[in-house]
Backbone:
């Protein structure tokens, strides 16, 4: 038997860090939405008791360090499944990009194994298992558009922004999320207007959405990886409707409503960057 699940990437429309907590995590407030840039996860039943990982189009761990492996292990142990599974990851989402590529693969494995192993779990129950793997996994279990608080797991679902184009550019220069958190100066931050963004989305006020795109991690990432700042500047100056960095970067994305403008910008960027994608915002929740 085989089950296939789509694992879409997320972007942050806003990203705010409120304070550092006593447990070491940062209290965040961010608006996330899913986009049509997705890995495909194929799950095949195995008669043996093993979890096997095969990665197509990418260099990723195939052992317990792969988040997809961890997702399978959690469900297998918790529900006493005696058969195994072969997980084939068709990788499309760039790795370490700020697009939650690993988290969405883990979430897709949770949804897919729920079907393959006929566990009958709800999305809420799968999200609870997902949090054991990482803070972004619960959001990725549901998909859609949400305000995420706490360490990213307290989700309030909101309407979706219009399904405009999302042009993503991932610079080569990588950044470490840990380093960025360490360097964040929370007292000196210019915080995003999260409430205003929620209203703009609810009112379908596209210019209002574009003008409120903001990520408090940008200044730190720009310092560590100046190429990211350059890409953002270039996108802003080329007439995109709104531009911001996703997650801890280094991917920068633009929202663009016009067909023509989106294609033109995509072709220009492709001329000098390896990893450029033109997709649509989806913002729809997964169904079981
Ligand atoms: P986030 O936006 O949640 O911070 P990210 O997009 O920056 O995540 P990922 O692509 O999820 O980063 O990868 C981060 C790390 O996770 C990499 O070191 C990678 O090796 C590891 N990893 C484990 N499993 C996966 C997977 N299935 N897909 C991608 N990365 C994975």
Residues:
């Amino acid at each position: 038997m085989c089950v296939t699940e789509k694992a879409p990437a997320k972007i942050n429309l806003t990203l705010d860090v409120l304070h550092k907590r006593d447990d070491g995590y940062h209290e965040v407030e961010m608006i996330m939405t899913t986009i049509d840039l997705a890995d495909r996860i194929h799950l095949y039943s195995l008669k043996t008791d093993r979890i096997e990982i095969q990665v197509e189009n990418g260099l990723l761990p195939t052992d317990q360090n792969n988040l997809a492996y961890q997702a399978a292990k959690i469900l297998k142990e918790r529900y006493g499944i005696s058969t195994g599974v072969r997980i084939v990851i068709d990788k499309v989402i760039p790795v370490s990009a700020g697009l939650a590529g690993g988290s969405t693969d883990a979430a897709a494995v949770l949804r897919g194994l729920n079907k393959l192993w006929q566990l009958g779990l709800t999305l809420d129950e799968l999200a609870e298992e997902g949090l054991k793997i990482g803070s972004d996994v619960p959001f990725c279990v549901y998909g859609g558009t949400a305000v995420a608080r706490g360490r990213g797991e307290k989700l309030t679902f909101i309407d979706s922004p219009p399904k405009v184009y999302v042009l993503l550019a991932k610079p080569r220069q990588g950044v470490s999320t840990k380093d960025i958190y360490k360097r964040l100066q929370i007292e000196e931050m210019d915080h995003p207007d999260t409430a205003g963004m929620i209203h703009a989305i609810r009112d379908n006020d596209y210019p209002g959405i574009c003008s409120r795109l903001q990520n408090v991690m940008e200044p730190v990432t720009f310092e560590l990886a100046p190429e990211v700042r350059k890409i953002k500047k270039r996108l802003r100056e080329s007439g995109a409707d709104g531009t911001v960095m996703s997650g801890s970067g280094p991917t920068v994305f633009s929202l663009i409503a016009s067909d023509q403008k989106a294609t033109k910008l995509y072709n220009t960027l492709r001329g000098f960057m390896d990893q450029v994608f033109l997709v649509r915002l989806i913002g729809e929740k997964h169904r079981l």
